[in-house]
Amino acid sequence: MNNEYLVDMVSAYLKGEVIELPVDFNTAIKDAKEQNLLPFLYAVYQKKEFKQYYITSVLVQEKFLALQNQITEIFNKEKIKHLYLKGSVLCHIYPDVALRTRGDIDVLIEERDLLRVRKLFNDMGYEEQHACSHHIGFIKDGFEFEVHFKMMTELKDNVNKYYENPFRLAHQKSEYLYELDENEHFLFVFFHFLKHLYSGAGIRFLLDFYYMFKNWNLNLDYIHQRISEFGYNKAYNNMLNGVYYLSGNIFDSTMDEIDIKFFIDYLLDSGIHGFAEGHERDNKYQPIKENKFAYYMRTIFLTNKGYRVLKYPHVGRCILFYPFLVIYNFFFLVIRKIWHKLTRKSNNYKNQSEKRTELNKKLGIQ
What we know:
alpha+beta, two-stranded antiparallel sheet, globular
């Protein structure tokens, strides 16, 4: 692969080694951007051409940290329980917060507070963005944050159920600000990583795991128990081997050493949120992990009020419009399904789907 040098770059940083840049500046910038590793270019190669990207990351992190403080002030004032997820927490366990780039802030609230929070931010002039079945996005001064009201909805039923009441996994940090136990945050990042693996995840995830292993006092017996319970032992072993491939460190003695090159290549071939340039996202091949009947009932009948209001903001609140929404939503889904069947080549789709299933088994997510 043409971007394999990114593995050498990350490994050199973790091991404190000095290496030479094997490609031109523009290629390095393009490849590092696809993997959300731009600040590492300057940290490793110390070229003046890369310094601007490191400085930009410093400034962006400062803006995100300030916005995060503002969000907490608002939620504390309104007595809304909340906790931060993913990059908002993980950046603090990197040796330099600027190295852990992020595109937004992820903050979790209780679902019962969703409509109040939405109105609160709208009234304050925040720009509302995309919404889906588990979060709604806002922008403040050009910086985005996502308000999550569900923690996990896209994996196996037992994983989704485990996160139905996520605040039970957290402890109160101050006023209405909570934080996940380190073991629980590790597990959540791991399951979030698995979700991204369906369409490609990028090697930056392995850096997150490296620093969690290195800086958190993890209870590996507890983590093994949970991962085994949810049936993701193979994916966990792949991740351990990936971290070892990057860093030379074995953080878990249960790791079964394997040839992990296919896994590294898969991560390199994809950007941080899906396949990089020239590749199509594979979301259409992602299997439905929840009970199919429950999935269809929720999708057709819009049983989640929060999601119903987000999808149909003008009429979703009023119960009088509910029967008409269900009818409209049903025909919309049927027409979309027919259109998909007419526009895709069934044999090609079947072949690609079978290949994807085999890959998922190898990745440990099937």
